[in-house]
Amino acid sequence: MSPSKPVAGFGREAPQLSAAQLLTQAARLAQAVPRLGAAYVRALGRWQGDPVLRLAGRPIITECFRSVKRQDELYAQGRTAPGGIVTYKRGGESNHNVLPSVALDVAFVLADGSVSWSGFLLSKFARLMKAAGAQVRWGGDWPHFKDRPHFEV
pTM of the entire structure? Predict the structure, then answer.
């Protein structure tokens, strides 16, 4: 093997979260109902324990509980505010709008520090979430609006 050709994945490090990011993750996780939080923790542990998945990105909770005001802001996106449509639920209609929350959204921190909502990574994480909790439903399985970052019980 030529030393000038790197081996795929060799020398790469798994994305790491800062202390502040870890505190934010803990706070968001604390907003979830226990069975959803437990499923997330189990799925995250399995993800981080897999040498290939760990290098692909680090799952993070982007939102758990969401205020009615925040829900209305997201509903406006793609309608009266810039951006694409990300929800069909107005404030008070979403499973994110109760505390403790029965829903959470996931994305991935990549090695370069960027955040990704890759459908491929989310589908891999969804398999782990559903295996971790029989009651977990994934938004990517919905027949009409595919909400791939969304998990709920």
Answer: 0.89
Got the DSSP string for 69-122?
A: HHHHHHHHBTTTBSS----S--TTTSGGGSSSBSEEEEEEE-TTS-EE--HHHH
pLDDT at 12: 74
d(CA 16, CA 113): 8
Q: Are 57 and 118 in contact (CB under 8 A)?
A: yes
Rounded to whole angstroms, how far apart are CA atoms 127 and 140?
11
pLDDT category at 13 given cuts 50, 70, 90 is: confident
Tokens matching residue 149: 């970052």
Cα gap 17→26, rounded to integer Å:
12
- At residue 141's C-alpha, the angle toward residues 137 and 143, to 5°, is 125
Structure tokens at 120: 């491929």
CB 110: neighbour CB atoms within 10 A? 16
d(Cα 38, Cα 128) in Å, to the nearest integer?
12
